[in-house]
Amino acid sequence: MRIKLVILLFLLNLVRFIESDDTTNRGLSWYESLPAVAMDYKVHIDAGKEDCFYQYVASGATFYVSMQVIRGGDGMAGFAVKHPSGQIVHPYQWQANSDYTDGQSTGGYYSVCIDNQFSRFAGKLVNLYITVVKYDDWERFTKEIEDLNLNMQNFTQVVQTVESNLNVMSQYQANSRAREARDYALIKDNNSYVGTWSIVQIFVIVVTTTVQVYFVRKLFDIKSSGYSRSRI
To answer: How many CA atoms lie within 13 A of 172 on its CB side?
Structure first.
């Protein structure tokens, strides 16, 4: 069984490599021909700015994108997705996290925009996770393997199911990493806040104690009058 798995993966990678060369010659990026692509970014959005990112999605593929604000300001940002046809399929919403899924894309470049225009002074650190999965490619790979006289249809279906489950798991893991990064940033900011104010309070206590000791000593400080009376 393990030998069959190695042979299958080798053949799939060989087919992908040949197809990637063909798509490169046609002017497409090498990764755009892969059955599944997952990208995880951390981007900084300046105060009062908006940044847009573009992702190519093949026709019939499943497109998924999620946004999570890690740190900065009120912890929220605007998030919108525009369809290749120009239609805004996910309108702007000021949220800490949001996502969008297109289960059957018509193909083209999707526009993913993160808006921080409502925040005039604070920049935002945002985690952006994008996946593009073409489930139909597994059937095409199955036919190509059958042409090579390899009867692994049942095994290929298992691999397809595993691929689908791995993609869902990757999405959950990306969301967990984003929440972990957000919590770590919050803990770090709180630690800095507590440490700073502790130093300030210690300084105030030391200064206050010094001033009090000084004035108490002044109360008991007796000055000599410069002369003394003789006894009779």
So the answer is: 6
Q: Residue 57: helix, strand or coil by DSSP? A: strand
- Sequential DSSP letters for 69-99: EEESTTS-EEEEEE-TTS-EEEEEEEESEEE
**In this structure, is the dihedral angle defined by the CA atoms of residues 175, 176, 179 and 181, taken in order, positive or negative?**
negative
* DSSP annotation string for 162-222: HHHHHHHHHHHHHHHHHHHHHHHHHHHHHHHHHHHHHHHHHHHHHHHHHHHHHHHHHHT-P
How confident is the prediction along the chain (232 residues), in pLDDT tens digits per residue?
A: 444 444 555 555 555 555 555 544 455 566 667 777 888 889 999 888 889 999 988 888 889 999 999 888 888 899 999 999 888 999 988 888 889 998 888 888 999 999 988 888 888 899 999 988 887 776 676 676 666 655 555 666 777 787 888 888 888 888 888 888 888 888 888 888 898 999 999 999 999 998 888 888 877 776 655 555 554 4
